[in-house]
TrEMBL record:
Keywords: 2Fe-2S, Iron, Iron-sulfur, Membrane, Metal-binding, Oxidoreductase, Transmembrane, Transmembrane helix. Signal peptide: none annotated. Residues 123-227 form the Rieske domain. Its cofactor is Fe cation. This is cholesterol 7-desaturase. Belongs to the cholesterol 7-desaturase family. It is found in: Membrane. It is an enzyme of class 1 (oxidoreductase). Its main location: membrane. GO terms for cellular component: cytoplasm; membrane. GO terms for biological process: cholesterol metabolic process. SUPFAM superfamilies: Bet v1-like, ISP domain. The gene is zgc:92275. It comes from Salmo salar (Atlantic salmon). The keyword Secreted does not apply.
């Protein structure tokens, strides 16, 4: 936020500076011209530039107008895309340290606790569909693995292990799409996206039967590409449901946010069952910001959020799902504003995907897809992608996404600095937390990977 403020201040100062210089140029006149009330300054007439100041002002005015119109267009119509770096949110930089230094220090000194397995079985978002055009190749880190994600010329997306089994080149760094296969940039070996089998070696007469890369189970739905992970290699036992309004084009893409969180994956969805934290952490209005040192400032007490929450697990055949029912109310200067009351159903599907469904008589309907994907054991990539009614002004869903982002970043500051407590000290009112942990345990198997070591630094 500080960097953005400085950037905005720099732009404002630049515009003011240009305007001042332009004003000086226009008004520089020969003394005689001032006395006689002549037209252009003598300096301009002698140089044969009569009319140049007016043209310069016109150009500056046009440039400023274009900048203003571009800013206005982005504000009103363009999707909101707020992509945070791993050290940008959730750390307190003091004593002249940078946020990166503060983040590295926290990670070095923080106790992790007795952690559950680090990679639960389930579906995980790799990227949004619009980020992968036909013929594109992306290098992505997911679940501690490097994968090559590419879209074939027929439009289908594939995910394979990134490293070529020949001599280890990264297929996603310089590799290219050939039909429905990906070609290694090192020696031209081509691997089929459907099953990972090598189908061509340009200098060999025969392709060995065993020449292949691992192909990940993937599915593309709701404008997202997801992969299936199971520590024992089992086939998918369930899928992420399709949101019909997105498929039919009734709800359109209005933006996304992305954060990297230094915590165990289970800490993040567990918030749904931690009902008490909502009343304490999220009651201050969004104008209070995200820095927990100041969210309870009396300056912003006139705006408050009120929450009523209930969490429950679903039963067969959807026992891999759970629901959080949220009733939100807004109070301004002690007065309740019913128009801004909102009911939200947050349905979690497996360990990595949550649908936040909005249905409001005035603000319309839509969904935020909240996705958690492990990058490495204690680093999670969390994205919020919003699709909303196409006939609702884009400013409405963008405001909802921005408000969600502010509230979420308060949690990030907690997650980035907390320790996982395997046997927490709970009171009766915290019973949903234990229920959530029992529900979440279904995504672990005997062979689920556990944390063997911890990096000493994030190396930002």
């Amino acid at each position: 936020m500080e960097g953005q403020s400085m950037s905005l201040l720099g732009k404002i100062m630049a515009v003011i500076g240009i305007s001042v210089v332009a004003g000086l140029i226009v008004h520089v006149r020969d003394p005689l011209d001032s006395i006689l009330g002549g037209g252009y300054p003598e300096l301009w007439r002698k140089a044969g530039l009569a009319g140049a100041p007016a043209r310069a002002v016109a150009c500056i005015f046009a440039g400023v107008s274009l900048l203003a119109m571009g800013w206005l267009y982005r504000l009103l119509f363009a999707p909101l895309e707020l992509l945070r770096t791993p050290d940008e949110v959730g750390y307190i930089a003091e004593d002249g340290r940078s946020r990166a230094q503060a983040a590295n220090e926290v990670r070095r000194r923080r106790k992790t606790g007795e952690l559950p397995p680090v990679y639960p079985n389930g579906w995980y978002r790799v990227l949004d569909s619009h980020m992968l055009e036909r013929g594109d190749v992306k290098n992505v880190t997911v679940l501690g693995e490097q994968v090559a994600v590419f879209r074939g010329t027929e439009g289908k997306a594939y995910v394979v292990d990134a490293y070529c089994p020949h001599l280890g080149a990264n297929l996603a760094v310089g590799g290219r799409v050939v039909g429905q296969s990906i070609e290694c940039p090192f020696h031209g070996w081509q691997f089929r996206g459907e099953d990972g089998k090598c189908v061509r070696i340009p200098y060999a007469e025969k392709v060995p039967e065993f020449a292949k890369v691992r192909c990940w189970h993937s599915m593309e739905t709701n404008g997202q590409l997801l992969v299936w992970f199971h520590c024992d290699g089992e086939e998918p036992g369930w899928t992420v449901p399709e949101q019909g309004e997105i498929t039919r084009g009734e709800w359109v893409y209005r933006g996304r946010t992305e954060h990297f969180i230094n915590a165990h994956i289970e800490e993040i969805p567990e918030n749904a069952a931690d009902i008490a934290h909502l009343a304490h952490l999220h009651t201050p209005g969004i104008v209070s910001g995200v820095d927990l040192r100041y969210t309870n400032s009396k300056t912003w007490e006139f705006v408050r959020h009120d929450w009523k929450v209930q969490w429950e697990a679903e039963s067969e055949p959807t026992k891999h799902c759970s629901q959080m029912l949220v009733k939100h109310a807004l109070t301004v200067f002690g007065r309740h504003w019913p128009l801004l009351d909102m009911d939200v159903v947050a349905r979690q599907v497996g360990p990595g995907v949550v649908f936040l469904l909005f249905d409001h008589s005035f603000l319309g309907r839509g969904v935020i897809m909240h996705c958690v994907t492990p990058v490495e054991p204690l680093l999670q990539c969390v994205s919020h992608t919003i699709f909303y009614q196409s006939n609702i002004p884009p400013l409405v869903p963008k405001f909802i996404l921005r408000a969600e982002c502010i509230q979420f970043e308060r949690d990030v500051m907690i997650w980035n600095n907390k320790k996982y407590i395997s046997k927490p000290l709970l009171v009766k009112e915290d019973s949903a937390i234990q229920k959530h942990r029992r529900w979440f345990s279904q995504f672990y198997s005997d062979n689920s990977p556990r944390l063997r070591y911890q990096h000493n630094t994030l190396d930002f």
